[in-house]
Amino acid sequence: MQTWKQRVKQLKNETYAIYIACKDPRVPWYARVFAGFVVAYAFSPIDLIPDVIPILGYLDDLILVPLGIMLVIKMIPPDVLVQCREKAEAAISQGKPTSRIAAILIVGIWLLLGILAVVWVAGVLKR
User: pLDDT tens, position by position, for the chain (127 residues)?
Assistant: First the structure.
């Protein structure tokens, strides 16, 4: 059980390090965009597959998020990643980092996706 807790903590640290890397100009633009999506999905309370669906609900948390983090880590220059990990560890040791801007952005994205889904369904039903 301790190994799982360590891995979850490491995953949170990596996610926050990637969040810090998103704002670093030394990271290529495509890596920053992909990292932004991965971080937003990891921190979002809304999942692609709802957790209430047995087994499948947790697959995105167990597979998609770690896979996305692994891909982003490969895109970020190693020296930048080391610095971002150090900053993330320092920030986490001082308390749980929060960002209202990130929360607003995530909620805005989900609202926009919800509106687009409603418009799409309404268009399909009119046919």
Answer: 668 778 777 888 898 899 899 989 999 999 999 998 888 877 776 666 666 777 777 777 778 888 999 999 999 999 999 999 999 988 888 876 666 776 777 778 878 988 999 999 998 888 7
CA angle, 13 as apex, 90 and 91 as ends, to 5°? 20
Classify residue 121 by its DSSP letter.
H
Assess if residue 118 is contained within a domain: no
Q: What are the DSSP E strand ranges found in the chain? A: none
- Domain carrying residue 42: 2-96
Residue 108 lies in a domain: no
Number of structural domains (the chain) is: 1
Q: What is the pTM of this model?
A: 0.67
**Structural domain contains residue 67:** yes
